[in-house]
Amino acid sequence: MTSLLKNRLFWPAAILVVMLVVNAFTSNQFITVRDGHLFGSLIDILRGSAPLLLVALGMTLVIATGGIDLSVGAVMAISGAVACLLIRDLSDQNSVGPVLLIMLVAVGVSLLAGLWNGALVAVVGIQPIIATLILMVAGRGIAQLVTDGQIINVQSGPYATIASGFFLALPVAFLIAAAAVVLITLLTRRTALGLLLESVGGSPTASRLAGIRARRITVMVYVVSGGFAGLAGLIYSANIKSADSISAGNLIELDAILAVVIGGTALIGGRFSIAGTVLGAVLIQAMTVTVVAVGVPSEATLLFKAVVVVALCLSQSPVFREKVFGRFTPRPAARAEVPAS
Amino acid sequence: MTTIDATPDTGNKKDSPSNPRRRVYRPNTRYIPILATLALLVIMYGGAVANYENFGQPSVVVNLFRDNAVLLVVTVGMTFVILTGGIDLSVGAVISLTTTLTATLLQGGWPPLVVLVLVLLIGSLIGAGQGAVIHFFKVEPFIATLAGLFLARGLALFINQQSIPIRDETWKAISEYRIPLADGVVTKPVAVVAVAAVLIAAAVLAWTRFGRNVYAIGGSADSALLMGLPVGRTRIAVYTLSGFCAALGGVLFSINSTSGWALQGNGLELDAIAACVIGGVLLTGGSGYVFGALLGVLVTGLIQTIIIFQGDLNAAWTRIIVGVLLFAFIVLQRLVTRKAK
Fold first, then answer.
1. Pairing with A4, which of A270, B1, B5, B294 sits 20 to 30 Å away (CA)?
2. Residue B24 forms part of a structural domain
3. Is there a domain that residue B59 lies in?
4. pTM summary value
5. Is B283 on the interface with A (CB under 8 A)?
């Protein structure tokens, strides 16, 4: 029992369970089967968390190397803009092949954006927060330029599928995110890659001296982060069936960083937890859905989120845990005097 | 015995590399980033004067301080935080809370002086709260202030989601007051406040015990603690100061725009961080000057002014150009700094 309480992920998981229970009681359909696929607010949470999950996954790898990627929101905007622009010009928007190709192009552009970030950090040697700030500022401008300042609407069946379609009774967006999680987990935990990431995060110089190509690994994580952000941008824009270069991925970088930290990955780098990130991302999305389900007025939404975030941050602080939960464990009489003084 | 043998050895090693120096004049390495920024700023200004008519007028430079007064004040607070190795993401949100609260209270007929003191106090309290959480519960500054961001903006949105006009006589009088500097050159009180903030902060940082403590904590918090410096007090004070500066910035904002709006100051925290970095304040802490941060603000302000003088750029291009100039500036500064070392 105490070991369960001591786990860093206990409180985030507990809050998630509470949210889901609240949802189960307040929303009229928590999980049901309709038209041959699952339906309800639980599925809404899974589907809605896909973009944040993808972005947070890439962010986890970047943070594991001691970096940070502020440009993910802008990359989402670029990827959605590129995809919608190309799809609009298709003669038949419902043909699967060209749409798939276009999505590949959009992800390719995002990978390039990630490569730019990685090069700035690893080759030029700019601090990550500033290097990615450049693309964060300029990227949204590029997206606006691509869409010519307009919101591009598309009517493409295959494109809409990646956000609102279902496969094997589960939402496609969720399946994409789940596949990404499995892929990254296998790559980092079944090969030496995870160890190398953590070693670069611990000390790039020491890793280089130990024979690890630290520079290459740093570039790689930014490229992966860019790619996942691009994929998230596609899901976002497919969901609203248009490219909105202003609000696509707005402030998602902060939510993603929050998800990563809730999941127990330290911002200083050197260790990371993919399961934790998944929990964090789903928790943040569950919070958004629950706020609506419970009927919190819209002006108090952010306040509600702030209270939960503060509670979560405190619950993860070792000092705070000791002060609050330390009471339950017996301790020497001499130490009991200290807090009183 | 071995210890005695070892002493002269280390003494020799220390002396030998310092002898062959002193051939050419080299500025103190601590000043190189600032000097590089200053040189680039002068070059940029010179280029703009050569290219645009009327750019050489003194009012352009004077207006730089007027238009960037809010950013300047916020950046001063941010400099202290970054010098201790922390970061404060909440400043933009504190500005929005301050403007909203100011406008609401003034509309409610509160005396202006009371409102001023109250909002400054609330800003400082938010900062102090964040500092306390960071120090006592060992929460990472990035996360603690991110929670502060959500909290402050959530409060602002809770108070009012609409833009509130300020019709108070005192506020309007300050907003419309002009200070003549020279023939045809006038400035606003907000600029004077901003410059005063810079001067006071520079003096505090350079000549007071508190200032030296800030540098010591940024260099190494553990060493500072072992030296008997008041690490906790200083750290909390630094965040309090940043909160105060953000609230002061919010007051200046409300004077400039004679209105309060919960979405004001969005993303200002990143502008302030960028200004600090351009000015040579290291994000790892312990190195940098308030005057560097001032130069950083002037650089971003000058970029904006040049874009206005260019005149034919739309919003998308403005973002891209700001990004490109930021990139060029940081790379150039890095090259200059690297060569000098």
1. A270
2. no
3. yes
4. 0.83
5. yes
